[in-house]
DNA sequence: CACTGATGTAACCGACGCTTACATCGAAGC
DNA sequence: GCTTCGATGTAAGCGTCGGTTACATCAGTG
């Protein structure tokens, strides 16, 4: 009765992948707090002990989801960077990729920022996160070296990151007042805010 | 055996207030996820059912903490606004007050932004939050009317709010890279970021 | 000094995270 | 083609949690 079970009943077939997908659906439908190993198992029509064959704990399941989230984030940023070469434009594209990802994958974003619920230090999450930050620092260092930055690179890095993160969370928490909760509109507003800030710190030749 | 019980044992005396204070201590020591009505009761040397005389649920307890947090935030902002009259300076002071509050009361900040764990709509929280936002919008409208704003007020409002919120959360999540976790240093960095951004959108006469 | 309302206790409920013993399957080796 | 075995699922159980309820103890009032 499951989605992807080829044969009869006993073995699910691909429970691990199914659990990750079902967790995302559960978060979108009921919220992060309702994620329970038992609940995920129940929704997949499987016994309450089955998940533990694939995942040792609730935290481990959410960490798997967070790793999927990080992969999608990296893919989104890579796509946004495609064909962009000017360093400050690359920084801007990175911000765009992050916001697209966060707004279009709210459940993933929610999980990856729930530091108390996932194992951020173990797993590649810390490393991937640091790599992203380092990439952005490099982009700004290059831009500064070319005299295109009207402010200190460290300043732009911290402000840009805080701005993007704040915008994403405000959307997630329904803090965009009149724009309602329409994701497409929120994406436009957020990206415009980033662009506007970067225009302020860009040196026009 | 409790801290503030005047007489023997049976009645605590001021359990409600004690629970709120103990919850804050528990969050600072063990994290928000470990907050449990039973655990709070245990730490106060009281039976597991006692808290329910004062609070109907875990969410209600955290909502009480959030209300205390909101009071402190309002007080901090009021203090920052004292004697400041220029509208754009008032906006800046509001941001400073928020950051001081968030960085010096990390547990309170954590609770108030845990929308899934508190009753944000009931209780005065939604109203107080909206009032704050309205005040900031007014500050910027006045500044714009005086020709002091180099950008659209709505733009500065959303960017300023996202920036402050993002900075506060980055500190809470330990995202300030080399500045370590020293709250005083983080406060300086965050406030400097706000000031720097506002300087960019201020029209110098 | 009995009564009463407020406050704390104790015992209980279903659900949860997690463990363990056992059942069932697919595939490999003979 | 049969057996064996590792991987995967089930069933039952442990301790704890959030929350409820019946009862015990207190402080103040008539």
TrEMBL record, chains A, B:
Any Pfam family the entry gives: TetR_C_33
Ranges for domain HTH tetR-type: 13-73
Keywords per UniProt: DNA-binding, Transcription, Transcription regulation
Superkingdom field: Bacteria
Residue ranges: DNA binding: 36-55
InterPro entries per UniProt: Homeodomain-like_sf, HTH-type_TetR-like_transc_reg, HTH_TetR, MT1864/Rv1816-like_C, Tet_transcr_reg_TetR-rel_C_sf
Zinc as UniProt keyword: no
Keyword 4Fe-4S part of the UniProt annotation: no
Protein's recorded name: TetR/AcrR family transcriptional regulator
């Amino acid at each position: 009765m499951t989605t992807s079970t080829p044969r009869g009943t006993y073995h699910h077939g691909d429970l691990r992948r199914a659990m990750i997908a079902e967790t995302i659906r559960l978060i979108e439908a009921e919220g992060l707090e309702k994620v329970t190993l038992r609940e995920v198992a129940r929704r997949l029509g499987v016994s309450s002990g089955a998940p533990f064959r694939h995942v040792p704990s609730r935290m481990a399941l959410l960490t798997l989801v967070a790793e999927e989230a990080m992969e999608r984030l990296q893919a989104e940023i890579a796509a946004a960077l495609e064909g962009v070469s000017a360093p400050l434009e690359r920084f801007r594209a990175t911000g765009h990729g992050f916001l697209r990802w966060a707004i279009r994958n709210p459940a993933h974003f929610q999980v990856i920022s729930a530091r108390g619920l996932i194992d951020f230090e173990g797993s590649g999450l810390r490393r991937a996160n640091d790599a992203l930050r380092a990439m952005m620092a490099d982009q700004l260092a290059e831009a500064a070296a070319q005299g295109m930055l009207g402010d200190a690179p460290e300043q732009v890095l911290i402000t840009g990151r805080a701005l993007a993160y704040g915008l994403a969370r405000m959307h997630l928490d329904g803090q965009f007042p009149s724009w309602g909760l329409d994701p497409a509109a929120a994406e436009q507003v957020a990206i415009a805010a980033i662009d506007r800030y970067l225009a302020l710190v860009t040196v026009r030749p």
